[in-house]
Amino acid sequence: MAVTKRSNRQKSDQDPAERMPDPRVGCDYTEYWVRAKKSYDMSADPAKKRKLTKLASSCPNVPLTYTVAS
C-alpha cells in the first residue's frame, strides 16, 4: 500500500491495534494485514486480533484468498 513519507513516519511501527489510517481505507487496510499474516503464517497478539476482527465486521463479506509464502 503506497503512502507518503510523512504518513509512513507518523505511523512508525504501530500496528492496527495502535493506529488506523483514514477510515475510508479501513477495509483495504484490514484485508492487507490479514492477508500478510496468513501468507507468512504469522500470529496476532490479542489486541491486534480484536481490532482486526472489529474492523472486518464492518466490511463486506467477501472471501479472502492468499498464497502461502515460501
UniProtKB/TrEMBL annotation:
The lineage of its organism: Bacteria, Bacillati, Actinomycetota, Actinomycetes, Kitasatosporales. Residues 10-22 have a biased composition (Basic and acidic residues). It comes from Streptomyces cuspidosporus. This is Uncharacterized protein. Residues 1-23 are annotated as: Disordered.
